[in-house]
Structures are given as C-alpha cells and as structure tokens.
Amino acid sequence: MLRSGIYSYPQTQRIIYGTPFAQALAKELDTVGAQRVYLLASGSLSRQTDAVQQVLQVLGSRSVGVFDAMPAHTPRYAVVQAAQQATLAQADLILTLGGGSITDAAKMVTLCMSNGIETTDELDRLATRVHADGRVERPEFLPPQVPCTVISTTLSAGEFSALAGCTDTVRGMKENFLNPQASPRSVILDPALTLHTPEWLWLSTGIRALDHAVEDLCSINTQPISEATSFEALRLLGRGLRAVKKDPSDLQGRLDCQLGAWMSIIGSSAGVHKGASHGIGHILGGTAGVPHGYTSCVMLPHVLRFNQSVNAAQQQRVSEALGFPNQPACEVVAELVAELGLPSTLRQVDVRKDMLDEIAQKSMHDRLIHTNPRKIHGPEDIRRILDAAF
Question: Could you please report the per-residue DSSP string of 150-186?
Fold first, then answer.
C-alpha cells in the first residue's frame, strides 16, 4: 500500500539566522514597512542587559510601547494586559525579545487583538477543549490581523509554530490556542544574543527541542519531511548542547542548537502527532509550575521506555541520530540529560507525591496523551509513568 498524506507549509515567511539581531531587525523592519512596533521583552533581559535598549535604538520613533512583565507559562491575565496596551498603541507589528513564554505571549496578543478579547474569561471562546476520552473541540475564530516578529533567546521552538500556550491560573491548566495563521511572520536567530540566557534555561529548552524531534520521529503518523528534519535536529542538538555545556562561548555550538530547534518543530506544521512526554509536560507546567524545558528532561526517558514495546524500530533511529545506535533511546536521552547537569526526577523539580493523581487526571485532557504511540487507557497508565519518574 502506497504511503499517502498532505503537508501544509507554515505561514512563516523568513527565518534569519547567524546575523547580529540589531542588524537583522533593521533590515526586517524595512522589508515589512512596520511603523508602530510594540515590544514584548523578557524581564531579565530588560533588567540585566542592554539588549532592549539596542532594539529600541533600532526602532527609534517606530516604538509605541514595551511590555517586560510577562511571567513564566504565559498567564491569561498578563496576555490580556499586554493586548490591551498594544491595541491602545495601534500597533502594526508585535515584536518579541526573549524565550518561549514571550513568544507564546506574542501569538496570544495578536489573537486577542483580532478577536476583541478584553477580559481573561473571554479567552474561553478561543481555547481548545480536550475531553478525557480524547475528543477535541477547536473553536473557530479570526486570525491575527497584526503580524509578529520573534527574536528568540531559548530553544523551545514555539516561534516556528502557529500553536500558542497560555495558562489559566484559576484552574491551574495550560491551554492551547490554535489558528493556522498565527505563526510569527519572521524569526531572528542570533547565537551571540543567547550568551545572556542562563545555562539551565538554554540547555533544558534544548532538551525540549530534542523532545519535539524524538516524539515526531516516533509518532504514529510520521511525514517524510519531518522524519528527515527530526533526525538532523537530533544530530545538531546532541552535538550543539554538548559543545555549549563544555564551552558556553561556543557560538557555532549555539547556532547548531538554534538550527536543531528549528528543524525539531517541522512535524508540527505537518500535523505529526506528539505523545505523552509533551502531554504530561503541559500539565506539569500549568499545574505544578515546572519550567518548560525541565518537563522534557524528566518525562521523555520514561515515556520512551513506556512506548518501547510498540515503536522500537523508530526509537532505534533516535539512538542512531544521537550517536549511540546500540543503546536503547531511553538510556541515550537520560545519559544526555545527566551529562548536561539537568534534573531527571520529579522530586528534583519540586513536584510532590501527593500531586501525582491530580496530574494524571488532568493529563487525560491534553490531546497529545491520546496520540501517544502506546495507547494510554486512563489516569492509571499516566500514574505508572509518573511513579517511574518520581
């Protein structure tokens, strides 16, 4: 039987890599003709570096506001606040400088602006709903009218995706918001800028990107393009993360990581389904406050072990790409996490034992639990994985 499928190219028009960010931004502004730019910036970059000032210098009179108070996991209240300010400023471009939470915020802000969202409760009509049986409800809503450009400083790769994550802090749930046209219009990758990124954040989001590639390569509905890019992503990330751990000033290693993160997310545009490492990770972030990258450090080896009986051949390609073809993928990934000095248990990321049942129950409402290669029948299966990771 012939293999068949459909691949949809993402809306992103340009990815500019290896160029100093101020230079790349100046050219991009001229290309798109933006005149009223609203900046979402990392608080730490704003307080501890001159990167925001460099951006503002490039923007000049085109700057119409700066928001640098976005907390981790992109909570609803902060998104709505930023969207209100950008709307009042009549922004014609949302620009980001920072990591994954800032990138998600930019996508959320553009969706709020185009759909008239003025309160946190109004986001209910845009959020994806996943039922415990796996049924997914995706509401229809207007695409962004104001584009965004991302200057990325971490490796979680949300800048290459139309999917935005945002946390409902009242329910303690990280939710998904998806419009196919919500991808950033352009992405700027400057390895020198990432010298400011804390080591733990750089390396752990690198494992998050590695998780994208692993779960795509091991997916139940792989695509030819994502198989190729996921394999190369693992090669680049495995090499680049080790290089940066050894020498934090290694710009080639940092660029390898950035290019690997870009390649790691190609499957998302093709509709390739990820699995339980991502699914559980979403709940660990929204419910237990675990940083995005750390969720993959802790969960991916155990999910690989859980799935090994159904996709051993695909997992062997993971091991091959990471340079250890004769070892189980779960061991190869665990050893890389240890080599980078990252946490490997739920205890190390401050998840309490009495939280595991709640996490298992909530995980059933994440759509990626229901596309895991080995069928997850209920919270008890998730609890087995969580116990192994504790």
Answer: EEE-SSS-GGG-SEEEEEETTTTEEEEEE-TT-S-SE
CATH architecture assigned to 200-389: Up-down Bundle (1.20)
Encoded tokens for 324: 């250890």
200-389 shares the fold of 14-189: no
* Strand, coil or helix: 149: strand
Question: Mean pLDDT highest for which of 5-9, 82-86, 135-139?
Answer: 82-86
Helix (H, G, I), strand (E, B) or coil at 234: helix
**Mean pLDDT of all residues belonging to the chain:** 96
Q: Residues 353, 344: contact at Cβ < 8 Å? A: no
Q: Is the pLDDT of residue 8 over 90?
A: no
Gap between the terminal Cα atoms of the chain: 43
Domain segments of the chain: what residues?
A: 14-189, 200-389
Q: What secondary structure letter does DSSP report for 71?
A: -
Per-residue pLDDT for 373 more than 90?
yes
What angle in degrees, to the nearest 10, is found between the helix axes of 292-321 and 224-246? Answer: 110
Q: How far apart are CA 280 and CA 323, in angstroms?
A: 27
- Cα torsion for 181, 186, 192, 193, to the nearest 10°? -60
Alpha-carbon distance values, 358 to 48, 99, 176 (Å): 37, 28, 19
Angle at 331 between CA 328 and CA 337, to 5 degrees: 145
> 14-189 — its CATH code?
3.40.50.1970
Q: Is the pLDDT of residue 11 over 90?
A: no
Q: Are strands 129-130 and 136-137 parallel, antiparallel or unpaired?
A: antiparallel
